[in-house]
Design brief:
It contains 7 helices and 8 strands. It is α+β, with helices and mostly antiparallel strands and 180 residues long. A hairpin with a 2-residue loop joins strand 4 and strand 5.
Length: 180
């Protein structure tokens, strides 16, 4: 029986569990918002993953940030080398944790919200990392989030963490498109 469908009908963790419990070998391919993700399995064990801006465990984190898109499990393929060291249960729990952690900035990656600079209104000094500075500079240049990720070679998850820090520091705001 082929495994394929839409992420709005099946959660990623359900799909992964089905492949794992069936001890399947092959590739789960997910196409979402013009982005392609892949998770490779050997006898139900997660071997490797790839996402637009990441590979391995970072890619799995990125995949868990997707809620929409089509998926298909393809068998009889040449499998890549193992890059994921954690067991399946750890990977799934980590993915669920990432989904929860990034829920409030996810709309930025979907294009349904945008980032705007928000000058820190306190008199406190704010220190920022080099990565945070690069993100702020790109936002000031009005670059699209995907352009920023590609230019700075950041995974969605890493960008999520940086954006959350900048929002927490009062330097960025998330604004829904069409709203204030």
């Amino acid at each position: 029986m082929p495994i394929k469908g839409n992420l709005k009908d099946f959660k990623l963790e359900e799909i992964l569990q089905m492949i794992v419990s069936g001890k399947k070998s092959g590739k789960l391919e997910i196409n979402s918002h013009g982005r392609r993700y892949r998770v490779y399995f050997k006898n139900g064990e997660i071997l490797h993953a790839s996402a637009p801006y990441s590979n391995g465990e970072d890619a799995i984190k990125d995949i868990f940030l997707e809620n929409y898109g089509h998926f298909e499990f393809i068998q009889n393929i040449i499998l890549p080398p193992k890059t994921i060291k954690k067991n399946n249960t750890e990977i799934i729990f980590q993915g669920l944790s990432v989904r929860d952690e990034c829920a409030d900035v996810k709309d930025i990656f979907l294009g349904t919200a945008k980032l705007i600079s928000s000058p820190n209104s306190t008199d406190d000094e704010v220190s920022i990392t080099e990565e945070e500075w690069k993100i702020l500079k790109n936002i000031a240049e009005q670059k699209d989030i995907n352009e920023i990720l590609e230019k700075e070679e950041l995974s969605y998850y890493k960008a999520c963490r940086i954006l959350k820090n900048l929002i927490k520091k009062g330097l960025l705001k998330v604004v829904k498109n069409g709203g204030g």
